[in-house]
Amino acid sequence: MKKERSKQRDVATGMALLLIHAGALAAFVPAFFSWSGVGLVFLLWWITGGIGVTLGYHRLITHRSLRVPRLCEYAIATLGTLALQGSPIEWIATHRAHHANSDRDGDPHDVHRGLPWAHMEWLYRANAARLSPAERRHYAPDLVDDPFYRALEVLAIPLQVALGVVLLILGGWSWVVWGIFVRLVFTYHCTWFVNSAAHATGYRTFRTGDRSTNCWWVALLSFGEGWHNNHHAFQFSARHGLRWFEFDMTWLTIRFLRAIRLARDVKLPSPQMMERLRLRGRQTRGVSA
Questions:
Q1: DSSP assignment, residue 282?
Q2: How many C-beta neighbours within 10 Å does residue 203 have?
Q3: Which among 50, 62, 121 has a CA at the least distance from the CA of 90?
Q4: What is the rounded CA–CA span in Å between residue 92 and residue 51?
Q5: What are phi and psi of 18, to 5 degrees?
Q6: Is 214 helix (H, G, I), strand (E, B) or coil?
Q7: pLDDT per residue over 226-274, tens digit each?
């Protein structure tokens, strides 16, 4: 089965990404420019990418680094769906497969195949490591068995269209261009840099057996996900920026949720765990692509 799938491109995904990027170019048309549209990009980037994907898809659901009430989890997952990076089942199963096979055969975005591949080509080019429905069930049985997450698999496009209609009513076509197309492209690349740049450049603090690195500028773009070597060392950790200067916006959000008693069972590595995996001397230097 894998050999057959390795010969197939995901044409639908490739065309969708091409159209979304083409739509974002409309931002250069003066008639579609507005400062409110620019502000909307950053607001929705944080809501859908920061809260929905980084906090929700990744730390909350993929790794269960914390717990929140079930309805709160569903709401956050819905925000992640609006980032249009795949349904929770698809995204989370793929990410769990990445950790199970990081930077070797079976990793859907193995950086050894090059930065363009790890960044975005893996999504639409022939890819033997792209998960089949059976493999998604293997990696994410908890979500496949949940009716709500199965529903989000078919609601991703309708939810995006509904958001577009709301933006059209509230701000006209300028808000549609900036709030849908520009926001999606910007959020895509912020997320994809975690797979590419944060496996190629930066520094390493912990021994992980893969090429994950800590990259400060990726961390800024992805609400803390760029402290990727830390994350690969302690996948269960709700905090990725483990040193005082490693700013982790999502960790601050989790601390706030814990303070208002919405988050519980927040997991962190112990000092002993960190010391056991800590690298010394030259080993801490980054990997260059």
A1: G
A2: 15
A3: 62
A4: 15
A5: -60, -45
A6: strand
A7: 999 999 999 999 999 999 999 999 999 999 999 999 999 999 999 999 9
The letter for the amino acid at 216 is W
Instruction: Name the residue type at position 224.
Output: G
Inter-residue contact 195 to 102 (CB < 8 Å)? no
Tokens of 72: 């709160």
- CB atoms inside a 10 Å sphere around CB 5: 15
Judge contact between 209 and 222, C-beta under 8 A: no
**10-52 pLDDT tens trace:** 999 999 999 999 999 999 999 999 999 999 999 999 999 999 9
- Give φ, ψ of 264 to 5 degrees: -145, 175
Two tokens at 124?
A: 């639409």
Q: Six-digit token pair at 2?
A: 């894998």
Location of structure tokens 């500028």: 217
| DSSP state string for 107-147 | -TT-GGG-HHHHHTGGGTS--TTSPPHHHHHHH-HHHHT-H
pTM (predicted TM-score): 0.93
Hey, what amino acid is at 109?
H
Amino acid identity for residue 162 in this structure: A
Distance CA 146, CA 89 (A): 10
Please name which of 259, 254, 7, 263 lies closest in space to residue 130, comparing C-alpha atoms.
Answer: 7
Closest CA to 164 of 154, 174, 152, 150: 174
Contact 88, 159 (CB under 8 A): no
The pair of structure tokens assigned to 166 is 């709301």
